[in-house]
Amino acid sequence: MNGNDASMKGKGGRLVIAVDGPAASGKGTLARRLAAHYGLPYLDTGLLYRMVARAMLDDDRDIHDAAAAEHVVASFDQSGFAEETLRGREIGEAASVVAAMPAVRKGLIERQRSFAAQPQGAVLDGRDIGTVICPDAPAKLFVTATPEVRAARRHKELAGRGEAATFEGILADIRRRDARDSGRSDAPLKAAEDAVILDTSALTVEEAVVAAITIVNARRAG
Ligand code: CDP
User: Fold this and answer.
1) What is the atom index within ligand 1 of the atom nearest the CA of 98?
2) How many angstroms separate the CA atoms of 93 and 165, rounded?
3) Distance CA 23, CA 99 (A)
4) Distance from Cα 2 to the centre of ligand 1, integer Å
5) pLDDT tens per residue, range 143-174
6) Band of pLDDT at residue 78, cut at 50, 70 and 90
7) Measuring from atom 3 of ligand 1, which residue has the nearest CA?
8) Which atom belonging to ligand 1 lies closest to the Cα atom of 86?
9) Across-strand partners of 125?
10) How confident is the model over 170-192, as a mean pLDDT?
11) pLDDT above 80 (res 108)
């Protein structure tokens, strides 16, 4: 953190940063780094949808059963899930199915908004943070990259966790998820009008972090 950012925070400024973007665009890494840089709490909202999907699968429910999903959302306890059971490929796919259900989205809005309402602010990443959850956030980033670059990143991530999958299979997953996330009627994946689009296709993680901090600082100053 540099002195300038610390002093801006010290003046009592509350800061909410919305980070949206498609699967494996690097938004989670960037959001985590922004949270550390500005000293803010961080919420990966994708995990909430992954928890709903996990609870459905653990209960042997049909993942397309909207009534069962609504029931799960109303009663689930976030502390009951280990993160490593949520990060797999199958859960990502199932999460995007339940995330298209309006009752699921509605049931998760309050948790996300109350996280963002913390006194110092927060960083949230997802698909609809800038458009639906925190439309008044002063700093909004829409992080993107080509499907091929995203598939290569996800391939490396899954291989690192011992989950075998081909590059082609992951690319197909990513294209299918993009279509489902962008095509749904409730809170589709899209950049807010006042979001800054950050294409990370040709950037290293460090370059993307610098670019993201520059964007947020410009928004805070403006
Ligand atoms: O890491 P990755 O981008 O693959 O997935 P994620 O961010 O954990 O999100 C998993 C799925 O949850 C996405 O494909 C979306 O369908 C859904 N999601 C959403 O609809 N809204 C959010 N705010 C976050 C995730």
Assistant:
1) 16
2) 14
3) 13
4) 32
5) 999 999 999 999 998 888 888 889 999 999 99
6) confident
7) 23
8) 8
9) 19, 44
10) 93
11) yes
Query: What predicted TM-score, i.e. pTM, was given to this entire model?
Result: 0.91
Contacts of 169 (CB under 8 A, 6+ apart): none
The confidence score (pLDDT) of residue 137 equals: 97
- Give the residue carrying structure tokens 């928890």: 51
Paired with 29 in beta bridges are none
pLDDT in tens, 125-149: 999 999 999 999 999 999 999 999 9
Given a cut of 90, whether residue 15 has pLDDT beyond it is: yes
Q: Name residue 139's beta-bridge partners.
A: 17
Concatenate the DSSP letters of all residues of 70-121 into one string: HHHHHH--GGG--GGGTSSHHHHHHHHHHTT-HHHHHHHHHHHHHHHTSTTE
Ligand 1 binding pocket, CB closer than 6 Å: 23-24, 28, 45-46, 49-50, 92, 95-96, 99, 126-128, 177, 181
